[in-house]
Design goal:
The chain has 4 helices and no strands. It is mainly α. The radius of gyration is 18 Å and the shape is globular.
């Protein structure tokens, strides 16, 4: 019985770990790649990072090409903002990201990292 408890505990830990990894926040993703808070945030205050900072590393035109086959539409090249949609509309660094498009377009069920 003790061995069964240990095995079940290990399985639950693995499951919980994989669930957490799927919901990792972008600040953790950036830190895992060696970036520090000051890579995006300037000074002592932690103000919102403008899109101009995001595009220093993330090329919007290349993102649009990478997601051009997404259905029903390309979230990185859309009729409202072309390739210049503010990254922070969907990608929240310190909170769970969201699918901004789905606020109006219910069928746009993109997974947003």
């Amino acid at each position: 019985m003790k061995n069964l408890t240990i095995i079940l505990s290990l399985v639950l830990c693995l499951f919980a770990g994989s669930t957490f990894a799927a919901e990792q926040l972008l600040d953790q993703t950036h830190m895992a790649k060696g970036l520090k808070c000051t890579s995006c945030h300037q000074g002592e205050t932690r103000e919102a990072v403008p899109m101009l900072k995001c595009v220093q590393c993330h090329n919007t035109a290349k993102l649009a090409v990478k997601t051009e086959n997404f259905k029903p539409t390309n979230p990185h090249n859309n009729r409202h903002f072309s390739t210049e949609t503010d990254c922070a509309k969907c990608h929240h660094v310190h909170e769970k990201s969201e699918n901004y498009c789905q606020g109006c377009h219910l069928k746009f069920d993109f997974v947003t990292p």
